[in-house]
Structures are given as structure tokens and as C-alpha cells.
Here is the input.
Amino acid sequence: MSPTMITLFGGVAALLLVASAIGFVLSRTVASEAGRATVDNLNARIKAWWMMIAIFAVAFAFGKIVTIVLFALVSFYCLREFLSITPTRAEDHRAIAAAFYLFIPLQYWLIAAEWQTLFTILIPVWAFLLLPVLIVLKGETSDFLQRSARIQWALMLTVFCISHAPALLILDIPGFDQNFLLLFFLITVVQLSDVLQYVFGKLFGKRKVAPRVSPAKTWEGLIGGGLTASAIGAGLWWITPFTPVQAAGMALAIVTAGFVGGLVLSAVKRSLGAKDWGTMIEGHGGAMDRMDSVSFAAPVFFHLINYFFGA
Amino acid sequence: MIADAVAGLVRELIFALTRFLVGGHARWRGCGPEPVQRIYFANHASHLDTIILCAALPVTLRRTTHPVAAADYWGRNALSRFIALKVLRAVLVERGGSRDPLAPLRDVLESGESLIIFPEGTRRNEALPAPFKSGLHHLARDFPAVQLVPVYLANLARAYPKGATLPAPISCVANFGTPITLAEGEDKQAFLARAHDAVCVMAEGAASTGVPA
Here is the structure.
């Protein structure tokens, strides 16, 4: 791990330490029933954050391959959560098996092998065409379009989109080779934006953005949290190939994509009749509840860098 | 000794792999994991059902709970026999033999231990089970003190349907319902229908982990 990266993780740990201290004080002072539930959930979230940060720090320290494997596992768990609450049929089994056993390993292998052209089209072209073929061979036509589309959506969001985060490591940027810092930038801005929107929403939230889709999202949270996260992103310009203004723009793009991603996935989740994607991460819900904004922000960030800064 | 150690290791491996792929968490909805003598009866959709149900029980209960498995399938070679008898501690029954097929089950119940049975008798690629066969009724009649616990295994027909080579990683849940008993003078068909319903009522929302808002 580079000295810069150690400093950055040190900063994150300091931030979490402050959060843990606040959580501890709140757990001693808040007395009301509803307040207690919020504080308990807050503390569960902070505890899970320590765990997640530790996992990322270890992966980053081991380098590219371990980080790619980590994201492959994240995709695996997200796809599992997605398909577990999606009504598929026994006839879809081959397509689902192909999604897990063929396309997850292949997509992440292409990143490890730095085969960027095929990485970009594997799922939108090859999987898109193959999955309905595997389903149609079973001869069941009822809900055919819905069944195919559900699996295609699941694979696009949980594998294709999320894989753009570790794919930042293979981007060729003239005059810049610290690609891990770009991945750090992306994850930090997305997650800080989520956390700050939650905090601003809890403190000042009044007007709901989309009450039916995601009742916890408020304009006050979005604007306060989003702008603060963008400002912090701008403040991190020195770890990127961007100028401070460019860094602010990139952070704003990440925040915006992350927000709409959270909104879209919330609607998907609700259309499937669930409140959380799973129970894997205490306080947060499932892995997909943490990765929803990343799934939209990662491809946007990847392609903006590739277009404006790539070789 | 060594066989037991190997069986223990294989058990942990199989359970760990099953958890990684299909989860298989327990949801105790109508009763708790109490150490009382029970017959767990469940819908049957895949070869993973037995493993999921065993893995869902706490270790202490697992030791005294025996899944019932078909001898023609699980006894077909030394390896599957080893897995059935030593790893899963199963009781093998002959299907369509001249001997009373329930005899090995009665032996287990007489010794005070518990059973896991799949009263449909065969696997089925549907969310809801086929009608139950009469074995459950005979055991309920002859062992009135044993608790009958309905279990609904959610998602297994999707995760590992009949004819598939590999299980797909879809999270499965073992739902444990409220125990039922054979009523005084209740006839066989009525009891079996009621037992069937006790499993089916858990199908609604059985796979979800969150509460719909």
C-alpha cells in the first residue's frame, strides 16, 4: 500500500472513530423508544462500516487481483440477493446458472486480463443474447419476456455495472498510474454521499423526494448530503488526475448517479415486494442495499474518466 | 472413530458449501428450536432439501434428528451410503418392498429421537407440495406424544430443480410452523389435508427476508 493510501485509510478510520464516539454518546443519552431504535440501527451501521472498511483495506493492500476477486464476490452476493427475491421459474434455471457460473467469472477474468474491449460488451451483447436462448430451449412461453428481462437486469446491475468499479484499475491514463486512488475516490464519494444524505435527512429532512419509492429520501438530505460529499470529493483532487474544479464535477456526477441509482433500485426492490435486499450486513440490509448507488455511479465515473482523461 | 471424524469433517464442508450457495437460514415462525421429540415434515423440491433442513437445526438438535431417505437412491453406492448414514445420520427406507416401510422410522421414534420426513414421497418442481402420502398419518396415530412440526422450504424448486446438474445460488429459507396434532377421531384424509395446509400457509412471503412496506 502506498503512503498516500495509508494516509487515506487513516483518515477514514479517524472519521469512523468520531462516528463511533457519537454513536456511543447517543446510546447513553437517547431515551425515547423511537430514538433508541434509530440509535441502535446507527450503531449497527457504524459497526458494519468498520468491517467493510477493514475488508477493503486488506484487499487494497494485497493489490489488483485480490481487489478484483473481492468485487467478484460482491457481485455474487448481490446477484444472489437480486434473484432470491425475483420470481423466477424452474425453467429459468439454466440461464441463472450461466449468469452465476459463466458470466461472473468471465467478466472479472476479463478485467484481470485487462481485455477492455470484450469486458465492455460481454454482458450487454453476449449474455443479453445467450440468456433468452437458454430459457427458450425449455419451451415455456408464459411470462417469457418478463422472465428473460429480470435475469438480464439482474446481471447488468449486479455484475456488469458493479464490475466497472474494479475496472478503474485497468484504465490507461497518461501521466497517472495510481489507479487504486480512483477506486478509493469513487467508493468514498458514493458512500459518503449515502451516509451524509442519511444524516442531513435525519437532522433537517422535511420534503420527501419520492415518498412512494423511497420514503427516507428528502430534498434536504439530498442537497445537504450531496453537496457536502461533492465538496469532500473536490478536496480529494490531489489524489486524482483532476484539477479541483474537475474533481468537484466528477464527485457531483458520482453523487447524482448514485442518488438516481438508489432511487431506481428502490423501485425495483419494491416492485418485488421487499423492503431490504437481504440481511447480510447488520443495520444496512443486504449487500445490494450498500451497492445500489455504486452500480449506477461506477459505470458513469469509469466512462467519464475514459472519455476525458483516457489514452 | 476415524470414520466419525471424517463424517464430521464432510458434514461441515457440505453445510458450509450449501450455506455459501443457497443460504438456508432457519425462520422459527410457529415454534422454537426446542429439544423435544418431533417429526419435522416438509415439502420436497430438491436433493438439497435434506441438507438444508439438517443445517437449519441447531447442532444439539441435529445429533438426535434423522432425515428419512430412500434406500434405492441413497444406498446405491458406498459413497452416497456413507453420506446418508454417517454424514446426515439418515434412516433409509425401502420404497415398494414387502416389509413395512415405516419399521425403521418407528424404531427411531421408539428410541426417543426425532425424524425429518418428506410426506410427498418424491421431489416436485413447484412452489407448493403434492398431496401427502399416508405415512405421516400412521406415525401420528401410533406416536401421539411426538410433536408434528410443518416445515416449508422456500425457493428450493428454483435453486435446484429436478434434472438440474448444479444448484443455482438462490437463497433458500427453512420456515418452521406451528406444531399440529392428530385430532380425536379425525380421519386420515382430513388429517393429511390439514398437514398439507400447515405447510402451504407458510409459502406466502416465505422466501422474503424483509417486510414489504
Chain A has three domains: 1-62, 76-161, 171-311.
